[in-house]
Amino acid sequence: MPSDDIPVRVNQRIHPTSIIIDKAAPKPKKGDAMPRNQSAFQRPLPPVLSLATPPKRRSCCCRVICCIFSLLLVLLLVVGIFALVFYLVFHPKVPDYSIDRLRITDFRLNLDLSLYARFNVRVTAKNPNKKIGIYYEKGGKMSVWYKDTNLCQGHFPAFYQGPLNTTATDVTLSGQNQYGNTLMQALQQQQQTGNIPLDLKVDQPVSIRVQSMKLGKVRFLVDCKLTVDNLSSTNLISIKASSCRIRVKL
After folding, report:
1. What is the pTM of this model?
2. Three-class DSSP labels, the chain
3. CA terminus-to-terminus distance, the chain
4. 3-class SS at 235?
């Protein structure tokens, strides 16, 4: 059957400006047939629905946090690899410490019932490392305790200890406790048993030297448990038992 639509030639170009839509024409109702004289180009266009979603905005704060987190992971990985290589190559070991001698040059009650103590302690440090030297920096502290009471304190000297070296150091400690009368009575009672427990503590900053390179500082925390027979300034003091433990603090 011949078509009633307006024929359009294939090679004819249709410009958008040639399409004329009559806005005054009445809109066809639902179910009505399109008039025969109305072109397909004159049909009312359906509303266009936009399917594009607005772009997501990334917070600048989130980007900064992600960058910092990534840098920290990389830094931890590099430090871990360096520590592993350092351990495999040099086999680092902590020094060994021992208390060889304890002398009391002054131990008395003052007129205000405070207790004054002056000790001289010989500490021996052994460096078991073959390729690592140890710098004992300034600021080292040493103290002697009876249970939870500080008897005296002093400063550990600064020096350099080479690989496979053994160094003996004499340290003078002094202190005054205001509860001297009570403390003296407790020490005299303990002395009757012949076993007086003492704690010697050292907090020492050190630097590690590998060949000609000096690495960062760490802290040696040394805790020595002693048992002596007396605390007299006139008698020779015998160290009946001694054991030292060391921790490394970064």
Report:
1. 0.68
2. CCCCCCCCCCCCCCCHHHCCCCCCCCCCCCCCCCCCCCCHHHCCCCCCCCCCCCCCCCCHHHHHHHHHHHHHHHHHHHHHHHHHHHHHHHCCCCCEEEEEEEEEEEEEECCCCCEEEEEEEEEEEECCCCCEEEEECCCEEEEEEECCEEEEEEEECCEEECCCCEEEEEEEEEEEECCHHHHHHHHHHHHCCCCEEEEEEEEEEEEEEECCEEEEEEEEEEEEEEEECCCCCCCCCCEEEEEEEEEEEC
3. 97
4. coil
CB–CB of 97/244 below 8 Å?
A: yes
> 126 — alpha (psi -120 to 50), left (phi > 0) or beta?
beta
Q: Look at 73-82, 196-205, 239-248 and tell me which has the smallest mean pLDDT.
A: 73-82
Q: Tokens 């053994």 appear where?
A: 166
| pLDDT, tens only, 120-154 | 999 999 999 999 999 999 999 999 999 999 999 99
Tokens of 70: 């990534």
**Residue 102 near residue 230, CB atoms below 8 Å:** no
Q: Looking at this protein, which amino acid is placed at residue 164? A: L
